[in-house]
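Moderator note: this is an archived Q&A kept for reference. The question asked for a predicted structure of one protein chain; the sequence and the answer are reproduced below.
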Amino acid sequence: MKYLLLFSTLILSGAISAQTDTLTRYFNGSLQSVGRTSGVYNGKAYQTAYGWEALIYNNAGVLIVKGGYKDKSLQTKNGLYTYYYPSGAVQVLGTMQNNVQEGCWRSWYASGKLKDSVFFSRGYKTGPSYSWFENGNPKYVGTFQNNQAAGDWTWYHENGNPSTKEKYQGGKITSLECFDSTGKASGIQCGLETEPSIKGRYGGIQKYIVDSLLYPAEALKKKIEGVVQIEFTVTKTGEVKDLHILSSPDKLLSDEVLRVILSVPGWYPAIEHNRPIDYVVKMNVPFFKNMESDD
């Protein structure tokens, strides 16, 4: 009897040890498990009754993802996945099966309000899809079939009134009704996907930049050249916000790009399904010596 008791205790201890065995792992920017030298984030993995579970942290040590894997090397995603905001609030929740999305995936705003709900089958959007504005009003209601819009779709203004009613077949729109913000029908032609554009007869933002950009004399003298990457948001009211430089060879070039963008006389907002929306613009602005005028 004592022997059997001892044997059972050893088995139990071994099981507990296996479950609490924690491994250090590293992840790249796409949250794939990689070697230490290629890692952007660090994390921990431990064995469970169903495989392995990983906890991934950002550089501040804040948990950003928790998810399951089939294998110890963390190459096959399998199980429940939870993505978190830096505050700790849930951002996205859904299930992976053999590295593909399956079932219902939902996302939330940082405020905790539900944002989206979409169904997947073998990695493809298939089934009902819903989205909401942060105020709780519907954003759209529709159905996907193998990642393509199918059947009836209704998009809404932020005040809850419909903006468009659309019918799809084989991923292509076959019917369109448009409505203004009061819900009044406004015809069968309206913008579905339109990027923001600048006001005035300047030939577009690219030509405006080319015509307005001045190569800084000091940069020419120092032979500074390269590409400035810039990002900003054109809001649904046509304002520019969150303007910042992503990369640049030198501050002299950055300042010139900022000057030109801020000199744009005005913007028409982007349009999505007959509604103005906030739109993130990313641009590359080149500076090379052969750009210098011959005058």
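Archived answer notes: The helical segments are 2-20, 205-212, 217-221, 251-262.
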